[in-house]
Design brief:
Helix content is 36%, strand content 21%. Strands 1, 2, 3, 7, 8, 9, 10 and 11 form an eight-stranded antiparallel β-sheet that branches. The protein has a three-stranded antiparallel β-sheet with strand order 4-6-5. The chain is globular and about 60 Å long. The two termini are 37 Å apart. Pfam families: Asparaginase_II.
Length: 331
């Protein structure tokens, strides 16, 4: 048996989503869910509220916050794109080009990993046409374009902007530590590299929820408020035309939310109520329903939450069951 001393969410995980086929619970997805009240206290959850997780793309709003504090000049749709794990649609790719052009750069300045579009149908079309992976099509290109623009605005070198010791990445880490730090919980630190090449720290799940609450409640005139408003006003730029995170942002007034790879998800409301969750197996089918269960526990009553509360289980092409989030208890 292989063991590791690296921090992670293995300890204390409990079922947070169930798969029912007929009347039988066929499978369970384990993980952690934390709920915060308006005052920032933990008010409910499942598993360990302080489990250390790799936030993956849930980190993007905090990376964008650090960029704004460092001199990035973006707003509206392009600022939302800076937080995105976008689907690679035409307007997403054009938006990343616009960000780069605003500082006299083009896609050759990007250091992210080339990829096909995240959208399944668009990816299939590109594959059928024999198109090669592109940096602009990769779902993090908006963030990377914003990182290039930040370096130019701050007078930092663009080359090497992914190095953990680069001033940009030091600024990001400082912002993450400030926003997600919780008393008595280990601070964030660079431990590995994300799929697109950016440094990736661990954060406590409760700290991730706290950071989103800070964005959702940020005062007018602050970088955090500008960022939250961009996400709220341009949700299709955060995800894509068919993405569940986009539907959630559209359907819950004032919500700030971001999905991440390996089934990390965080969201916060304008009054400071917040949720963060991690599905331990990394599979995506439990993420959406677990978030719906968490928002329901926080008292969110919106049609989109009810729509996302279940996912169908099929048998011979017919619906014979469902994937559903475990109800999240309040303290």
């Amino acid at each position: 048996m292989t063991t590791t001393s690296a921090p992670g969410p293995l300890a204390g995980a409990v079922p947070i989503a169930l798969v029912r086929r007929g009347d039988v619970v066929e499978s369970a997805h384990h993980g952690h869910v934390v709920l915060l009240g308006p005052d920032g206290d933990v008010v409910g959850g499942l598993g360990d509220p302080d489990a250390l997780v790799l936030p993956r793309s849930c980190l993007k709003p905090l990376q964008a916050l650090a960029m704004l504090r460092s001199g990035l000049r973006l707003g509206g749709d392009l600022l939302a794109l800076a937080t995105a794990s976008h689907s690679g649609e035409d307007f997403h790719r054009d938006g990343a080009r616009r960000v780069l052009a605003s500082v006299g750069r083009d896609e050759t300045s990007l250091a992210n990993t080339p990829d096909l579009p995240l959208d399944e149908h668009l990816r299939a079309t590109w594959t059928a046409e024999g198109r090669a992976p592109e940096r602009l099509a990769q779902n993090c290109s908006g963030k990377h374009a914003a990182m290039v623009a930040t370096c130019v605005a701050a007078g930092w070198p663009v080359e090497g902007y992914l190095d953990p010791d680069h001033p940009l990445q030091r600024a990001v880490l400082a912002t993450v530590r400030d926003a997600a730090g919780r008393p008595g919980v280990p601070a964030a630190g660079h431990v590995t590299t994300d799929g697109c090449g950016t440094p990736l720290p661990t954060v406590p799940l409760s700290g991730l929820a706290q950071a989103f609450a800070g964005l959702a409640t940020a005062g007018r005139g602050t970088p955090g408020h500008a960022l939250a408003e961009a996400v709220r006003d341009f949700p299709v730029w955060v995800g894509g035309t068919t993405r569940d995170v986009t539907a959630l942002l559209r359907g819950v007034p004032g919500l700030v939310a971001k999905d991440g790879a390996e089934s990390v998800y965080a969201a916060a409301l304008p009054d400071g109520r917040a949720v963060a969750l991690k599905v331990l197996d990394g599979g995506d089918r439990a993420r959406r329903v677990a978030m719906a269960a968490a928002l329901t526990a926080l008292g969110v009553d919106a049609p989109v939450v009810a729509e996302q509360a279940t996912a169908p289980v099929l048998g011979h092409g017919e619906v014979v069951g469902e994937v559903v989030g475990v109800p999240v208890p309040l303290r």
